[in-house]
Amino acid sequence: MAEAVVERQETATEPELLTVAEWMRLYNEHSIEVVNGETIITSPPNIAHVYVASDLGFLLEQHARRHQLGHTFIEAPYLLDASDRDDWVRGSRVPDVSFIAQARLDAYLNQHGKSGPFRLAPDLAVEIVSPNDPYSDVMQKVDEYLRYGVRLVWVIDPQTRTIRAFTPDDPAGQLFRDGDTLAGAEVLPGWSAAVTEVLGENGGDSTKL
């Protein structure tokens, strides 16, 4: 999860919404997310963050391809609240790792092609916590993902070496630590990995990478 690098301003007026075209122009200039219509510029991740994301992405994609389950993406942009009818973007997120099941992905690409961001919620969204991420911001992302139809959310904290898994049926989440095994459940059937494998031996300490 990249850190926000702009301050949120509490105002009495509604934020000015972006069109999808405006969103794409800004996204090409900066890494951005849109929260309740407000555009937030995010900072790039650190090396420890990148290691965890790339290693997890590899583990997921290897299994997904072998069993033709779908496709894994690294930092793919999703317009969670964008209407085809009025073209306004009210919510967008860029999970560190995500997965879309094959049937949903095929249907989406047949309708929209490969141009622009995804206009749907992934089946799995993974957020890797940065050292300065406020807990409230992390949980806001989890709430949004579940509200827009994400079936499984993993929040990975390399500093504490923990992973919390959230589903619509378990919004409080289940905590996994070193020694535990993380599973893909119904989203990625048959996939599992030890927490230590996901985080790496030194996953939370960038000085040891």
Describe it for me?
The protein has helices spanning 20-29, 47-66, 102-112, 135-147, 195-199, and strands at 18-19, 32-35, 38-41, 70-74, 78-82, 88-93, 97-101, 124-128, 152-157, 162-167, 170-177, 181-183, 192-194. The chain has 209 residues and is an alpha+beta fold. The chain contains five helices and 13 strands. The strands form four sheets. The chain has a six-stranded mixed sheet with strand order 4-7-8-9-10-11, sandwiched between helices. It has a three-stranded antiparallel sheet with strand order 1-6-5. Helices cover 28% and strands 30% of the residues. Strand 5 and strand 6 form a beta hairpin. It has one domain: tt1808, chain A (Alpha-Beta Complex), CATH 3.90.1570.
In brief:
By secondary structure, this protein is of the alpha+beta class. It has helices at 20-29, 47-66, 102-112, 135-147, 195-199, and strands spanning 18-19, 32-35, 38-41, 70-74, 78-82, 88-93, 97-101, 124-128, 152-157, 162-167, 170-177, 181-183, 192-194. The radius of gyration is 17 Å and the shape is globular.
Key features of this structure:
209 residues, alpha+beta, tt1808, chain A, three-stranded antiparallel beta sheet, 5 helices, 13 strands, disordered C terminus
Q: Give the structural class.
A: alpha+beta
H/E topology pattern: EHEEHEEEEHEHEEEEEH
What is the CATH superfamily?
Answer: tt1808, chain A
- Computed over alpha carbons, the radius of gyration is 17 Å
CATH architecture: Alpha-Beta Complex
What does the secondary structure layout of this molecule look like, with pairings?
Elements (H helix, E strand, L loop, with lengths): L17 E2 H10 L2 E4 L2 E4 L5 H20 L3 E5 L3 E5 L5 E6 L3 E5 H11 L11 E5 L6 H13 L4 E6 L4 E6 L2 E8 L3 E3 L8 E3 H5 L10
Parallel strand pairs: 8-9
Antiparallel strand pairs: 1-6, 2-3, 4-7, 5-6, 7-8, 9-10, 10-11, 12-13
